[in-house]
Amino acid sequence: MQLRYNYRLYPDTGQREALARAFGCARVVFNDGLRARQEAREQGLAYISDGELSRRLITEAKQTPQRAWLGEVSAVVLQQALADLNTAYRNFFNSLSGKRKGRKVAPPRFRSRKDNRQAVRFTANSRFKVLDNGRLRLPKVGEVPVRWSRSLPSDPSSVTVIKDAAGRYFASFVVQTSTDETLPETDSEVGIDLGLTHFAVLSDGTKVAAPKFLRRAARKLRRLQQDLSRKQRGSNNRKKAIVKVARAHTRVADTRRDWQHKLSTTIIRDNQAVYVEDLCVTGLGRTRLARSVHDAGWSQFVAMLEYKATRYGRRFGRVDRWFPSTRMCSECGRIGDKLALNVRSWDCPCGSHHDRDVNAARNIRAAGRADLNDRGAQVRPASVPAPRREAVTHPDVACSTRSVEGISTL
């Protein structure tokens, strides 16, 4: 299984300038490739192959005065920029033909130098190396200090250097885990009903309160946003205010992700099988509850459960979103009328009294068991792609659960 391990980088002034050149060159090559293919399509010419695009925009472009500065960065960075363009086109074509499931994918767009997030990727061909002194050697950048929060399980196949909106630098390593991390089997299986008042209600009756990280930081974020709106556009003070707003948002995101990692790990460790409802988060994000839905971060939490189940030998299942888990009696199976959101408990004609959320979690567990049994579920599900952020960078970045109350005083 492939995983991503993220670590904080602390480049000096010269290394930051070198990384800025790498970000800029990769962006220019990506935009040149996209422009070349768009012009070929408008002129009715054949689709430009990957090799031809690399020859024109990298090999030959370096010999011209207009693009001679492309030689100041590693060639692997430029090749990976074209690889990203090819992936974007492939996803777009597969989405049009129906090979790619899910929402429709838009065609590639030009990258802007004003984007808050910049990234470049180094593969094994670039000969990046983790040195014995703990530094990361990057070609034409230098030896960058790394904050190692844990050791890598194997030699990384690639590393992506990321600069986020708050001005922080990260190294994201892709590693292959070969050791068996299967946890001891347990008889417990759990269904999870996700909500807003309670973030998660388990079928055993456990209720996890919603932390509401964004709402707790709302006062601080509002004040910072007001300060930003008063700054003159293009001024240095405005740039500083933008960074302050970004840092406050990243603090909220890091804290939420850290909390969800701890909760998902606990659930996976204690249960042999986990079943959740396949919620339409995109649709719920368009309702009047949009802020609360995005603050909850259900999609990120479910993704954590899915890949951790694969990693540790657990079963994971999704229940169809149209399954009437809330209004079905978990005792007799009778389906009642639709319940208003303010109805938190109800009685079934069979004599059972149900807590709305606990009853839904029990029905999700029962439906998940039946679905997996019909499909002949295996102990180890199929491999899932490497998650974008496997864990937080280091303990100092993300707050622990006990320090959540301090967010509002950022």
Report on this model:
This protein is of the alpha+beta class and 410 residues long. Helix content is 39%, strand content 17%. The chain contains ten helices and 15 strands. It has a five-stranded antiparallel β-sheet with strand order 2-7-8-1-6. A five-stranded mixed β-sheet has the order 11-10-9-12-13. A hairpin with a 5-residue loop joins strand 3 and strand 4 (136-138). The longest helix is centred in the middle third of the chain and has 35 residues, at 236-270. It is elongated. 29% of the residues are buried. Mean pLDDT is 87; it is low at 375-385 and 388-410.
Overall 3D form: elongated
Number of E-state strands:
15
Please tally the helical runs, counting DSSP H or I stretches of 4 or more residues. 10
Cα(first) to Cα(last) distance is 38 Å
Read across the widest sheet, the strand sequence of neighbours is 2-7-8-1-6
Please identify the oligomeric state. Answer: single chain
What is the percent of helical residues? 25-40%
Brief summary of the model shown:
This protein has 410 residues and is an alpha+beta fold.
